[in-house]
Design a protein that fits this description.
With 126 residues, the protein is an all-alpha fold. The chain is built from four helices and no strands. It has two domains: 86 residues, Type II deoxyuridine triphosphatase (all-alpha NTP pyrophosphatase fold, Orthogonal Bundle); 33 residues, no CATH class.
Length: 126
């Protein structure tokens, strides 16, 4: 059995789940897309909060423990919503990868230059 491209498979699985729960990004209007961008941003904010709660962040509380397994689950939950958001924005796995690698190059250049000055135009090509 062949080993599928993992990013393509993640996008495929997420699109299938979204369709199952009634979110069809293939037929969205711009108004629908705006609504779902906000929905997924809110969902990711909640997942970030849940991830934060997996880590002992209350410096005044001694009872807390690091829940690494739950933190891993929350990261995966974030990925579900991130890929859903990419689908709403009509990104393919190839688009996602291309944008990621271009942004990665920008980040490396920022580090190489000391990132002492913000350049609002350094990511416009992505």
């Amino acid at each position: 059995m062949s080993n599928p491209d993992k990013l393509n498979e993640i996008f495929r699985l997420q699109e299938s789940l979204n369709l199952r729960i009634g979110v069809d990004t293939r037929h969205m209007t711009d108004e629908d897309r705006q609504k779902w961008v906000l929905n997924y941003c809110r969902a990711m904010s909640q997942e970030i909060a849940e991830l934060t709660d997996s880590v002992p962040w209350k410096w005044w509380a001694k009872y807390q423990t690091f829940d690494k397994q739950n933190a891993r689950v929350e990261v995966v939950d974030l990925m579900h919503f991130l890929i859903s958001l990419a689908l709403v924005l009509e990104m393919t796995p190839e688009d996602f990868y291309a944008a990621y690698t271009k942004k990665h190059s920008v980040n490396l250049a920022r580090q190489d230059s000391g990132y002492a000055k913000k350049d609002d135009n350094d990511s416009r090509h992505i």
